[in-house]
Amino acid sequence: MNVGDFIIMDSAIKRLESTFPLSQKIHFPTHERITRVGFKRQKEISLNFLCGTNCLNSSMLIHRQWNIGLINSLLMKKVITLGVGWGNYQQHPDTYTSLLLRRMLSANHLHSVRDSYTESQLKKAGVKNVINTSCPTMWDLTEQHCAQIPTSKAENVVFTLTDYRQDYDKDLTLIQALKESYQDVYFWVQGSQDYEYFKTFGRHLDGIKVIPANLSDFDKILLSSLSLDYIGTRLHAGIRALQKMRRSIIISVDNRAEEKRKDFNLTVIPRNLTVSEYVDIFNQHVELQLTIPFSAINEWKAQFD
């Protein structure tokens, strides 16, 4: 339902393939319960890796983004995390969540999380063997890579909105600023209801070109010869743009972008700006000086040598 999951999994699979080049990889869905066939496969595998963002929260009996229960801890091999994150800013993990995570997550491996907030929440749940590696989507954003990304404003822009973080007035301000600042404006549909929300802006959308909800279509415009920036509220669309050497400005709508700004110096700006404030930022040079924790990344990978 969210093409951002494909951006995350594209990078996660790349990490696992390079770490375990000779091993077969089997995929189990996190949003659905594992079936009888899945539990049978669990007897045949060596390790489980939980990949992706927003898998964890403080009340996992109620909110099952990772759709497991205590029975899974009896029938599944132990789990190692790769770039997982905590869904929102929340209270301490409750007793059930703490018990579930301690039973599910391996005590003999280091767990990779996307930010220091998730690291802190897991440790509060009693899972101490955790390191902050950033999201695997960022592992290739080296100093050499980032040096090739333009710092000045492009002629055109592709932007995103977020269907589950709607704010009509603030998003209208963004659209007006984009149309004022760029020659051609493109909208990429990342989430299942993004286009329905986009259409509510009616006449304000005149001249905006829509890119379909496929990662291949988004990659196509990012890899095109267009002079192009990315600006929007979708975090992983912004990181995908960086992967493809595009100047990227992410607008914060939740804890994921904020934590990446604080931990890794990702270019993230607030959402409550005026048109003129947005335009001023768009016209500024964006010097990308990321602080990716490569030593922690190497430590996580080295445990499988």
Automatic annotation (TrEMBL):
Pfam annotation, one family: PS_pyruv_trans
UniProtKB keywords: Transferase
Superkingdom of the organism of origin: Bacteria
Domain Polysaccharide pyruvyl transferase: 2-255
GO terms for MF: transferase activity
The protein, known as: Polysaccharide pyruvyl transferase family protein
Species the sequence originates in: Limnobaculum allomyrinae
